[in-house]
Amino acid sequence: MKKLNILLLSVLTLTAYAQKFEDLAPTPPMGWNSWNYFSCNVSEDLIREAADAMVESGMKDAGYVYINIDDCWHGERDSQGFIQPDPNRFPSGMKALADYIHSKGLKLGIYSDAGWKTCAGRMGSRGYEFQDAMTYASWGIDYLKYDWCNTEGLKAEGAYLTMRDALYKAGRPIVFSLCEWGNDKPWEWGPKIGHLWRTTGDIYHCFDCIVDHGTWKQWGVEQILDQQDGLRKYAGPDHWNDADMMEIGNGMSVNEDRAHFSMWCMLASPLIAGNDIRNMSEETKNILTNKEAIAINQDPLGIQGFKYYSSDGLELWFKPLENGNWAICFLNRDEDAKTIDFDWSHWYVKDDLNNLVIDFKNEEYKIRNVWSHKDEGTTKKVFQTELPGHDVIMLRLTPGK
Ligand code: GLA
């Protein structure tokens, strides 16, 4: 009996040990991250101001919750190996910062790297995983983005497993964001380890470009979109394909920003703003806080959308939503405007993965335009409109007349 008890206990301990925190991301995480706009220029003042702005701008009301500090917050390790924040940038310490963020009803994210150094050359977590996880938990951190620079000799799945177990052992529920750039197909092993995984290298604030840095590349919105092909089957509640932090408000045109946001919504990608949310234009704010678009991203079914049709720079994307609703997005990849003349009755759309069908010939749907916030009749009538270059028409379809 005693033997049996010991066996049972060790089985229980083992199962409790080897898992990720469940249900932390039933819908794609929403927040803000410092990197795309501020790169290494982070400080506690900036992070507090970003939190204030998230509340004041209406982003919090729209569903954004994470304030994520990216690279360069690090100071040295103390004599026992515990990581300290940079004393000049974060003089009050991380615990005080987390308390402030929490007092605003928001959550705090932090960044580390599976290698011995981060991408910007700060202290990585290699060899310190359990100690770092304990430190983050003691500070009150809610989200960890874990990067993949300087990882010579490591295998991604194993390295991310180690940090997952360390976080779990530390006991504080922390969303685990794998930033491995899609190198080793994290969608195949990521669901049991983290809540989201990057699918590509870093984004760049252009709609259609590749920035070549020699050993690595940055990708425009269209280029990131194309790299999502074939990945939708891996995503769902608590395990999302991450198309990278957004570049809305960072220099693209309003049309391009709108298209970028719409496509991240269609992809059920995490929505992590990457601009200076303390100083944004009305247009940027309106895009980031469009609740009808966000509802498509945050739909409880958690089904990633798919490209159904593509011709001459025009793409048609569909995303199944709850209650038999669908989102549809016309994306114009070209710079020139296009005329849309869409006769619904010719379309029979099938989502093979989920065995869902829209048979427009036999079923009628009400049309809601997500960006103009207007009802546009039903699918019994041909849908006609002008679609500017690098822009979208995003619609929600609801069964009925
Ligand atoms: C990598 C990541 C980026 C960012 C930087 C920070 O490039 O992919 O998102 O975190 O590192 O150095």
Defining traits:
401 residues; alpha/beta; TIM Barrel; Immunoglobulin-like; 2 domains; eight-stranded parallel beta sheet; six-stranded antiparallel beta sheet; 12 helices; 22 strands; binds alpha-D-galactopyranose
Helix content range of the residues, please? Answer: 25-40%
CATH superfamily of the largest domain: Aldolase class I
Q: Can you tell me the number of structural domains?
A: 2
Content-based structural category: alpha/beta
Discrete helix count:
12
What percent strand? 25-35%
Which CATH-level-2 architecture of the largest domain?
Alpha-Beta Barrel
* Low-pLDDT segments: none
Strand order of the largest sheet: 11-8-7-6-5-2-1-12
> Which CATH class of the largest domain?
Alpha Beta
Distance between the termini: 67 Å
What do these coordinates show?
This protein is 28% helix and 25% strand. By secondary structure, the protein is α/β, with parallel strands linked by helices. It folds into 2 domains: 277 residues, Aldolase class I (TIM Barrel, Alpha-Beta Barrel); 94 residues, Golgi alpha-mannosidase II (Immunoglobulin-like, Sandwich), CATH 2.60.40.1180. α6 packs across α7. The chain starts with a helix and ends with a strand. The mean pLDDT is 96. The structure holds alpha-D-galactopyranose. Alpha-D-galactopyranose binds next to loops.
